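debug: dumping io for the single-chain case to check the tokenizer round-trip. Nothing else runs in this session.
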Amino acid sequence: MDYRRMPIEIESPEQLGYDKIKCNLTESSMPDMKFDALGVDFSDLTLAYTDHAGDPELRQMIAAEGEGLRAEDVLATPGAAAALFIIATTLLSARDRILVVHPNYATNIETPRAIGCGVDLLELRFEDGFRLDTGRLRSMVTPQTKLISLTTPHNPTGTALSEAEIKEAADIAEQAGCPLLVDETYRDMAFDGPAPLAASISPSAISVSSLSKTYGLPGIRVGWIISKNAALMETFLAAKEQIVICGSALDERAAVALMRRKKEFQAVALADIRRAFEATRDWMASQNDLEWVEPRGGVVCFPRIKPALDIDIDEFYRILNEEYGTYVGPGHWFGMDRRHMRIGYGWPKPDELAAGLQNITRAAARARRKST
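debug: decoded output
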């Protein structure tokens, strides 16, 4: 494994120091939940090794969200990041290739690269509304393709795949004889309601998700893998056992508490997301420097400074960060031009979001090059 630190982690707010940030628009989740909101009682919990596949009740509740799924089809993991790592290291080698949409959450690309796997990027284009072109997807599959990797709702653009698009991608994967990985971390935040779990659509599909983003619970590190392929799930379990043996008893107890009240927490989250999204949409309509593809889910968008504008991009970020204390996810976090930026609108409080968005407008105006 050839590990390299990723810019999105090196430059993350927790590494920079939250005390240095006035307006934090980098986060890709809802606000972090206070532990007491879960109402969890640990007094009777024995701090022993847990079921290696994950708490049975937790897995049953996750499986119940997909038609035809069973608890045996679910493997709990320490967050979605661990799920993606397990899948990549199980399915890929230096002799193989992965076909993955780009831009993307860095781990979906960097872990295969660390393995030495060939990485074929299916570019999502601003001009095409960041839509998945299934025709191009089909044409890019080769005999060496061992995994197809999609994300919906998508990070960083906020676009979402329809059920028909997921089914078509699953058909392509089945014909190629390789699994389809669908990162569904933002599924519960889809504006038009969640698409069916990919793993419930096709036996070739693998679903990955977590409680970190919608419910503001990154601190308990609970995610999961779902697949109907029993042999593959046994191998994923073997990988988990060699990495961590099992999950944390504390984390999984907290996750069960959340899942028992999931509808309650989700309703509050969706209402807050709608308000924050509308504020962001109103700001986009009020200014002339940035353009976007309007998101259809999640709590992030990926606008860009209009290509025709003569703006010093480095100076824009310097002013935004150093003078206004406002941070976004610059395009290079996702292997894209720095005119692009990921704006997380779900995490900041309304006043912080409003101030941060206005600071982007102010920084863009000040970074314009003067015509001579």
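debug: round-trip ok. Residues 7-28+264-366 form a domain with the Aspartate Aminotransferase, domain 1 fold (CATH 3.90.1150.10).
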